[in-house]
């Protein structure tokens, strides 16, 4: 895809009439991938979101072919409890970045990052945002880290599939910064998942910094 083709994409808030093409793109995007990497969804999942349980934003080419979409879900979905796992206030406004798909011919042009940015912009002001991503799917969690999310936990969800739980607050985001002088830091690469789980449960956080993906134990927690 050329830069000109990217600039010609048209972004829309999708509605109930778009259900069939959303689901068709979802099926194409997950073809050949197992549940250890992505979560298959049913038409009913998208139908509920389009009916008011959330918002779906999409990008269309000049012929109005849907080439990418991203889901913003209101509230946590059953089986994931970021409010309990992360100690969020009982009445916190929670929204989930609940999946996205990009057509094969449009991959490699940072559309996943753009979908994250646009969903964060759609979120309610001050909302607590979260997403899940398989450790075996680095393209997904690295994109989220690049847009200000932090890896906060490792959990088995979605019929016992291992997922990172990533979170951030809605609102403006500054570019990733180097850890503060008082922070403890360990490179993420090379750490076993068991060791990652142990550190995350102690308050360490996965971040993207100019030097790469790291686990940080902040001296001061925001």
Task: Describe the model.
The protein is of the alpha+beta class and 222 residues long. The protein folds into two domains: 3-173, Aminopeptidase, CATH 3.40.630.30; 176-222, no CATH class. The chain has helices at 3-7, 19-29, 43-53, 82-85, 111-122, 138-146, 193-201, and strands at residues 10-13, 54-60, 66-74, 94-102, 128-133, 150-157, 161-169, 184-187, 205-209, 212-217. The strands form two sheets. The protein has a seven-stranded mixed β-sheet, sandwiched between helices. A hairpin with a 5-residue loop joins β2 and β3 (66-74). α2 crosses α3 (43-53). It is globular. The chain starts with a helix and ends in a 5-residue tail after the last strand.
Structure summary:
This is N-acetyltransferase domain-containing protein. With 222 residues, the chain is α+β, with helices and mostly antiparallel strands. It contains seven helices and ten strands.
| H-E string | HEHHEEHEHEHEEEHEE
Name of the CATH architecture of the largest domain:
3-Layer(aba) Sandwich
Sheet-strand content, in percent, reads 25-35%
How are strands sequenced across the largest beta sheet?
1-2-3-4-5-7-6
- What is the molecular shape? globular
Protein name: N-acetyltransferase domain-containing protein
InterPro entries: Acyl_CoA_acyltransferase, GNAT_dom
Domain N-acetyltransferase: 9-171
């Amino acid at each position: 895809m050329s830069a000109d083709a990217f600039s010609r994409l048209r972004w829309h808030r999708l509605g109930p009439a778009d259900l069939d093409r959303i689901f068709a793109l979802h099926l194409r995007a997950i073809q050949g991938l197992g549940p250890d990497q992505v979560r298959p969804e049913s038409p009913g999942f998208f139908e509920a979101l389009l009916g008011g349980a959330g918002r779906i934003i999409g990008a269309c080419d000049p012929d109005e072919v849907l080439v990418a979409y991203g889901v913003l879900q209101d509230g946590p979905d059953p089986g994931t409890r970021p409010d309990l796992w992360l100690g969020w206030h009982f009445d916190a406004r929670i929204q989930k970045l609940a999946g996205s798909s990009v057509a094969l011919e449009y991959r490699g042009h940072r559309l996943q990052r753009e979908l994250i940015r646009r969903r964060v912009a759609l979120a309610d002001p001050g909302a607590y945002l979260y997403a899940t991503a398989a450790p075996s799917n680095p393209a997904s969690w690295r994109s989220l880290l690049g847009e200000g999310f932090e890896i906060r936990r490792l959990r088995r969800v979605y019929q016992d599939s291992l997922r990172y739980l990533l979170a951030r607050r809605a609102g403006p985001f500054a570019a990733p910064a180097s850890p503060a002088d008082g922070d403890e830091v360990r490179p993420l690469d090379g750490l076993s998942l068991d060791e990652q789980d142990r550190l995350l449960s102690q308050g360490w956080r996965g971040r993207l910094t100019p030097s790469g993906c790291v686990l940080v134990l902040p001296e001061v927690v925001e």
